[in-house]
Amino acid sequence: AGSQEAYTEAAVALFQRLDEIEEILSTKRYLCSKESPTLADLCLFPTVYRFDSVYYTHFKCNKKHIYEYPNIWGWLLEIYQMAGVKETCDMGKIKEHYFTSHESIHPRRYIPIGPDIDFDQPHGRDKLF
Length: 129
Description:
mainly alpha; single chain; 5 helices
């Protein structure tokens, strides 16, 4: 963001959208379906997967962590655990890219050592729906 006002406006809008997604996932298992994931789920997944490890600090989107949204958190874990998904996820490479390629945001290019997130923990979505 080019100014405090622009940052605040964007951050407020982001967390409003996360609140809306949390509400949607409180009533159905997936974003657009009660039975199976759709393209909407697969498109949102990478952003949510990266959020706590990258966006929270890198882009100062630090009002709440994804794990503080119980429905989004369970949804994230479920999508991650689907066949073939986790094999495409490399948080080390993701963090390396974000924290070393944006010199104006992180001029020293240090890569954070955390957080440690267990994406293989039970998601519980199957018990809710």
